[in-house]
Amino acid sequence: MGQEAVAPLKVLLITGGCCHDYDAQKQLIKNGLEQRAHMLVTVVQQGGTATDSRIPLYENADWATGYDVVIHDECFSDVKDNAWTRRILKPHREGLPAVVVHCAMHCYRDGTDDWFEFCGVTSRTHGAHYPHEVLNRDAEHPIMQGFGAGWANPAGELYWIEKVWPSTHPLASSKNQEKGNEEVCVWTNDYHGTRVFGTTLGHHNETVSHPAFLELLTRGTLWACNRLDDGRYLKNVDPRNDSEAAEPPPVAGDRKKAIVPDDVQVPEEFAATLFAAPPAVQYPVFVAADDNGVLYVSVDKNGSLDRKPNRGAIFRLRDIDGDGYADETKLYVSNVDSPRGLVWDRDRLYVLHPPHLSAFIDHDGDGISDEQQLLVENLAFTFKDRPADHSSNGVTLGIDGWLYLAIGDFGFMDAVGRDGRHLQFRGGGVVRVRPDGTELEVYSRGTRNILEVALDPQLNGFARDNTNDGGGWDIRLHHFSGLENHGYPTRFKNFADEIVQPLADYGGGSGCGACYIA
User: What's the predicted TM-score (pTM) here?
Assistant: First the structure.
């Protein structure tokens, strides 16, 4: 049996004004909505390409009569008459649902906040044009279900948000690649009891024509009308183009995603599956998990050699439906340069982000850090001196309650803990500090460029060194017990009897992370 017949929702799409290809986009939106849901979209395009047009539609006091929802997709920033703004808002204040798209957020700047309050965000400008990720901040919300943890917007004009109104609930966001902060780009708003769905996405035709955008707009429009939970309105169509999903194939008999490369090998008792992939997370460096299985990932788009600011972040990934694949992505820390090691403990994430060690705390439980406690300063050099390669890297929490830090061979000149203790460290090795940033001290010396220390319950530490330079110092498997010297760079050739020899030597290469599993 087919779907029960239902009268289509009457949708008014208002478009026109400056700076956008509304001739094409009005048809893309109309067709996209009508293909995906039982909607009848009426398009009104007026105002030419000016920024100050008072379109004829709004001259009629009953301009919205007969419609179930209005989509505002116009661009008239220089209409500055508050009486005109209130005329437009009147039916919405009286309960008519609305959808606001892209340049609608920049309309009707009349010197008041009336229009911004209706939209749910305040925005007056945007940044450069570039593709960007759209991160699903609330995968449990009906609008965002099925969206995935992230979507790659093929062409973007990210709006800079000055204020998220208290009545607004963010659904998705993206990182501002110019300033480094998070920008909310999809949301819902409770406008005096009226439902409003909003998105700043939609500048380019590449975005507006994309199946993911059209599915998002469809679900948002149905939500605004309080019809998303009514199964009669969504049509039985595949909203996303499989060729653009770019997801790896499922493991036979399992919904988890397989890791494709043949050179990824694990022991027989383990299985390697893909938890998250671009655009939900890119350029991962370290991972840490809390006791609920939420994953934190440090991301550094500088790689090992670049030294540009505002390119680091910490992502929070959550599997909501238990299929082993991330559904939700939040910017736990939207902007932190060179994030390296991570470890979660109780209510905070310890992060080694050279040149500093910090604790980031989420007090209100929304999945986004709202406090940074700087524990140790100057544990490495800044971008002024060198990139973050060969720097202070991993952080491990020992069973003794100390934080153990893996230090690269650049060392540091004058690290300072919260208790005022100073420490200088030449070369690589391990230092440790209390979780409150006190009692900073050297634990082990004489390694080159270790990335992370694995600790067992008896505080035996292990790490593989990292080198491709030759000279007799290769990937050595180190054993740390405290206060020993491993020989780099001054002793390993001629004073071998004065150092702790490695457990193994694996030749040249790049040994990286370490984790102890009993």
Answer: 0.90
